[in-house]
Automatic annotation (TrEMBL):
Residues 336-348 have a biased composition (Acidic residues). One of its GO terms (molecular function) is proton-transporting ATPase activity, rotational mechanism. It is a multi-pass membrane protein. Residues 87-121, 219-246 form a coiled coil. Keywords: Coiled coil, Ion transport, Membrane, Transmembrane, Transmembrane helix, Transport. This is A-type ATP synthase subunit I. It comes from Natronoglomus mannanivorans. Component of the A-type ATP synthase that produces ATP from ADP in the presence of a proton gradient across the membrane. The chain crosses the membrane at residues 415-440, 452-474, 506-533, 545-564, 584-608, 629-654, 686-709.
Length: 754
């Protein structure tokens, strides 16, 4: 379906005494998308959290912190019990688990800190151990300067030799480490002597470690301590893993329980309340309204008043354009100043219908009185969006949401993407072998326990299926023709042709890509026209109808016989691609003239509707966007050419007098062909040629396979987002998130009801 699921605005009004029961029932139903009270009603304030909300929030933070410490994921738990089955003494159990985990985590932190310090000491001492000089020989001198570090010995010695302040020096090396001893010239202080001489040199200085041991012994001692600390960390991690296995399910179930409690306890923050009453508003799929009313009535009886305020469609600017009839009865008595005064006002004030975005039809008297009778919209009145698509198309909703959630007033483009994206992908790649691999990749992605990965996997399955179908028609299996494999007897196999040798067909693909672009862009403009109809037929004609006339008028003329001699031969005429393959030379001349008239009329309408800016956009919208679809031909020919090149390297090839190249396969008769290239499989010696051929074949086709995803996948995605969406799509809608623990459950139920 192109329209999002129909939504109803619902108001629930009652006394505060039944509010906890109402919240619990609504939460279990998982149907109502709550609207936030904006504080604009006189005498009403946002509600306060239910008692215990702060404690539940603190406990929830504790549980999530423990899960983070344990790196606990729901997928890792053997089984997660229902949150309602948690024992009554769960607080004591949580405290025991928290204490033990925190103790172990603190121990692990202390050990890790000591390990870090030990590793730093090892890093400082290792250069001296590598040097092989005792530490006491590197310090305690009054007449010479000593320095140890890493750098070029030649550069160091050159710098020391060039320094006038250095009278004599000596270097000792061990591996990359250099020890320098330098004596100062007469009258020069030895402190910092070497540092001054090495200014500008790339030299890393090492501080002298504080130990009485030899460097080698000290490193050995530190290394032993490092291993002890690493062993301690492993023991702590093992104990934490044991706790994770024993208490993981409990923590996950407790998180679910506390999440529900916090959601319920904080729900009044979205309500409008007085000392004795509350009003809650929200959106619900219209088909579930009766279920919603029945459940609340069973829970609290007549203690609440439930109203369907409106059931409306919205234009793209958020203004209500239609409201279904709702009961024309007085609303409930609500305490604004006193319950009695509010009841009197609600019984005496008449209802008002929404006609201009003001007070909503069916608004209760209590709400109207609270609003001061001003007719102002007092709660968020933009409906959330529940996309309502056929099951095969639902994974493609992800591609729409990557841009933005559709507005409630917009047509949902998911179905159109489902119909065009896999088809275009398959057209561009068109190979049975690649198609099967794409489907296999999609199947693997679908196995992941993630909605996004399942959607990607399903899209991959569809794209792979169309790639396989087009590959069958193109007669391609990893770039090798089925006829070369002896499969030419299959029906319709090789009905089409692509690749480097498909010269005539390539011209046809150019023309058909333009036709596909015209169809695709017209779909977008028609959807945009329907969206604009909410502003009136005139607005729709100027906004979208003008571009429909302009673009189609131009290309109807291009594909017509009017001035046929002035047009490229491959587009129209006796030598056109349509004439050669379909027997169609072009549209009649009179149709072309009508197209020119439509072009001029559309151009004028663009100028009237969008002004000078629209006229400057005319070349892109009427012509350039259609030409963008030529990228499909580029990908089709490029991928075919790449597969051809890989196979030519592997198998070699022969050419006949027409220039057609046949791969040197055992199944192919190359008699009468001239050998062009000796493939790797035919190289001598065979024990080198065949393994090399296998490597080139596998790696080459993997490269083509992956480039197919980036080329065909991204290029078609660009055509969807830039050329197609630009014709109609605005987005910016709010996603339907019902008040309840499993926000996805209701959406799934509503979508599977078709």
């Amino acid at each position: 379906m192109l329209r999002p699921e129909r939504m109803s605005k619902v108001s629930v009004t009652g006394s505060k005494g039944v509010m906890p029961t109402v919240i619990e029932t609504v939460h279990e139903l998982n149907l109502l998308h709550l609207s936030d009270y904006d504080g604009s009603w006189q005498g009403f304030d946002n509600g306060d959290p239910i008692e215990g909300a702060e404690d539940a929030s603190g406990e929830l933070v504790t549980v999530r912190a423990l899960e983070s410490t344990l790196n606990l994921d729901a997928d890792e738990a053997d089984s997660v019990p229902d949150s309602s089955a948690i024992e009554s003494d769960w607080r004591e159990r949580l405290e025991r688990v928290r204490t033990r985990i925190n103790e172990l985590d603190d121990q692990r932190g202390e050990v890790r800190e000591e390990l870090r310090q030990v590793e730093e000491r090892i890093d400082r001492v290792e250069p001296f151990a590598e040097l092989g000089i005792d530490l006491d020989l590197l310090t305690g001198y009054d007449s010479v300067d000593v320095l140890v570090g890493e750098g070029s010995v030649a550069d160091v010695e050159a710098a020391l030799a060039a320094a006038d302040e250095v009278r004599a020096y000596e270097t000792f090396t061990g591996g990359d480490v250099v020890a320098i001893v330098a004596a100062p010239a007469d009258g020069v202080d030895d402190e910092g002597l070497i540092d001054d001489a090495l200014v500008g040199q790339e030299f890393t200085r090492h501080a002298l470690p504080d130990t009485d041991q030899s460097p080698t012994a000290y490193v050995d001692e530190l290394t032993r301590r490092k291993h002890e600390l690493e062993s301690d960390i492993e023991e702590i991690d093992t104990e934490l893993e044991e706790i994770k296995r024993e208490e993981g399910s409990f923590l996950l179930a407790l998180e679910e329980k506390l999440t529900i409690e916090v959601q319920r306890a904080e729900a009044p923050l979205q309500f409008a309340t007085t000392e004795r009453a509350f009003v809650a508003e929200g959106w619900i799929p219209s088909e579930y309204y009766d279920e919603f009313v029945t459940a609340l009535s069973d829970a609290v009886g007549d203690s609440v008043e439930i109203e369907e305020i409106e059931r409306a469609e919205y234009d793209r600017h958020g203004a209500p354009t239609h409201a279904a009839p709702v009961p024309d009865e007085g609303g409930p008595a609500v305490d604004t100043e006193t319950d009695e005064d509010a009841e009197s006002e609600s019984e005496s004030e008449p209802q008002k219908a929404a006609t201009d975005g003001g007070q909503k039809q069916g608004q209760s008297h209590a709400q109207a009185g609270a609003a001061g009778g001003s007719g102002a919209v007092t709660m968020d009145d933009e409906p959330p969006v529940v996309l309502d698509n056929l099951r095969p198309a639902r994974p493609f909703e992800m591609m729409v949401k990557m841009v933005s959630q559709p507005k409630y007033s917009e047509l949902d483009p998911t179905l159109l993407i489902f119909l065009t994206y896999p088809f275009a992908f398959g057209f561009m790649i068109g190979d049975i072998g690649y198609g099967i691999l794409y489907m296999a990749m999609g199947y693997v992605a679908y196995q992941f326990d993630s909605d996004a990965m399942k959607a990607i996997g399903t899209i991959g399955l569809w794209a792979g299926a169309f790639t396989t179908v087009f590959g069958y028609l193109y007669d391609d299996i990893f770039g090798v023709h089925m006829a070369d494999l002896g499969l030419e007897w299959l029906p319709l196999a090789g009905s089409l042709t692509k690749g480097l040798q498909a010269t005539e067909w390539a011209m046809l693909w150019i023309v058909l890509s333009l036709v596909f672009g015209l169809i695709h862009l017209n779909l977008g403009l028609i959807v945009g026209f329907v969206n604009e109809l909410s502003h009136g037929l005139k607005a729709a004609m100027y906004e979208k109808g003008s571009w429909i006339l302009t673009m189609n008028g131009l290309f109807v003329w291009i594909f017509s016989l009017h001035l046929v001699n002035e047009k490229p031969d491959f587009i129209v005429g006796e030598e056109s691609m349509f004439a050669e393959f379909l027997g169609f030379t072009g549209l009649p001349e009179v149709v072309g003239i009508v197209g020119l008239v439509a072009l001029v009329v559309g151009f004028v309408m663009v100028g009237i509707g969008e002004g000078i800016a629209g006229l400057f956009e005319w070349p892109a919208w009427a012509f350039g966007h259609v030409l963008s679809y030529l990228r499909m031909v580029a990908v089709l020919l490029a991928k075919g050419g790449m597969a051809f090149a890989v196979n030519l390297l592997v198998f070699g090839g022969y050419s006949d007098e027409t220039g057609y190249t046949a791969f040197n396969l055992p199944t192919y008769d190359v008699a009468g062909y001239e050998q062009d290239f000796v493939g790797l499989v035919h190289m001598d010696p065979v024990w080198i040629g065949i393994p090399l051929a296998i490597v080139v074949f596998v790696l080459g086709h993997i490269l083509v396979l992956l480039l197919g995803i980036t080329a065909a996948g991204i290029q078609m995605l660009r055509l969807e987002y830039v050329e197609f969406f630009q014709k109609f799509y605005e987005g910016g809608g709010e996603e339907y998130e019902p008040f309840g623990h499993d926000s996805a459950g209701t959406q799934t139920r509503s979508q599977t009801a078709d």
